[in-house]
Amino acid sequence: MTHKPLSPRPTIMAVSPDRHGALDHFELESLGYHPDEILDFSANINAYGPPPGIREAIAAASIERYPDRESLALRRALSECHATPIEQIVLGNGAAELVWLIAFAFVCPQDAVVIAGPTFGEYARCAALMGGRVQTVEARAEDAFKVSPEHIEQALRLSPRLFFLCNPNNPTGAVLDPDRIAGWAAAYPATLFVIDEAYLEFAPDIPSTFQYGLSNILVLRSMTKSCAIAGLRLGYALGHPTIIDGLSRSRPPWNVNVVAQAAGLAALADDRHMHDSIAKLRRDKEKLVAGLAELGLPTVSSTTHYFIVDVADGAQFRRRLLTRHIQVRDCASFGLSTYARIAGRRPDENTRLLAAIEETKG
């Protein structure tokens, strides 16, 4: 007798997976390419690599034991770094896991969730999976993709359960003044303001929204990008103890492995490398942007080392460069099909990208 297989919850089947940057090994295999052959401009990672001590810390990690489920040593180090109590810090398997935990802990069916877009797709996806009603307030090209405070204010008047803002934003690199965010949070205390600062280190002149100490602001940070440990996945959230406790209760056990915890401690012990390399990336980006302009590809202003550029057809632009073993991020999944996102790399690698673009033009 044949039985019909059980189906997942309807909301699961109704929400499509989101696309992201970085290398797709299945795609590369189908094209006959090896990942090591590809120069990747599609992921917003520090191209100068991790601090030197990280590899030594990884090698010394005790992988035969379960990790500390509370990540006490790393949370204490972060507590000192941010001058905040350990009860206001929770770690995640990347900042992306924390986005999922936020939705799991705080979104009930039919809750309103407002998102400032275009932005990281997991905010909307996770909220929808929990049955939330998602409203995206889109920034416009004519405003250089900077969010409209008036449009955000209008959405907040409906008192949504959550408000997601990536600051600096992904993919645009646009920044909203933290003073304005704090003003909104003070005016709408029933809304949890989730401020994703995964790329804040790449915009060193921008202060963190966490500084305002408001109980309905939850800040997400990532060590994946600035410390170049994308393969390890490490992020953390800073917020009011009640909010942090809710996220902590939602975590799977041992969600941050021993290798990631060791790498995080090593990175915090050597933040000079990160700051120096990010300063170099910012200088390298200026030359890359100038080179793109000479090729007829002016970029949208960005506070970070990554930026978007109108290339007429982002998917086609990406495909052409992939034949030269170079990958950029087409922005169709952000609703920006004519744009590509490029994360600047080292000078010689940027030169290789510019040459490949010139070779494949038309």
A few lines on this structure:
By secondary structure, this protein is of the alpha/beta class. The protein has two domains: 10-49 and 272-360, Aspartate Aminotransferase, domain 1 (Alpha-Beta Complex); 53-271, Aspartate Aminotransferase, domain 2.
What percent of the residues sit in helical stretches (DSSP H or I)?
25-40%
**Largest sheet, spatial ordering of strands:** 2-8-7-6-5-3-4
- Please, what is the average pLDDT? 95
Number of strands: 12
Largest sheet data: 7 strands, mixed
> Would you state the CATH class of the largest domain?
Alpha Beta
Kindly, what is the distance between the CA atoms of the first and last residues, rounded to a whole number of angstroms? Answer: 58 Å
Question: What integer value in Å does the Rg equal?
Answer: 21 Å
Level-2 CATH architecture of the largest domain = 3-Layer(aba) Sandwich
Helix-strand string: HHEHHEHEHEHEHEEEHHHEHEEEH
Notes on the structure:
The protein has 362 residues and is an alpha/beta fold. The protein folds into two domains: 10-49 and 272-360, Alpha-Beta Complex (Aspartate Aminotransferase, domain 1), CATH 3.90.1150; 53-271, Type I PLP-dependent aspartate aminotransferase-like (Major domain) (Aspartate Aminotransferase, domain 2). The protein is 38% helix and 14% strand. The protein has 13 helices and twelve strands. It has helices spanning 10-14, 25-31, 53-60, 72-82, 95-106, 122-129, 149-156, 178-187, 241-250, 258-269, 271-294, 314-322, 347-360, and strands at 39-40, 89-92, 112-117, 133-138, 162-166, 192-196, 217-222, 235-238, 306-310, 326-327, 329-330, 339-343. The strands form three sheets. Strands 2-8-7-6-5-3-4 form a seven-stranded mixed beta sheet, with helices on both faces. The protein has a three-stranded antiparallel beta sheet with strand order 9-12-11, covered by helices on one side. β5, α8 and β6 (192-196) form a beta-alpha-beta unit. α4 (72-82) packs parallel to α10, α5 crosses α9 (241-250) and α11 packs parallel to α13. 44% of the residues are buried.
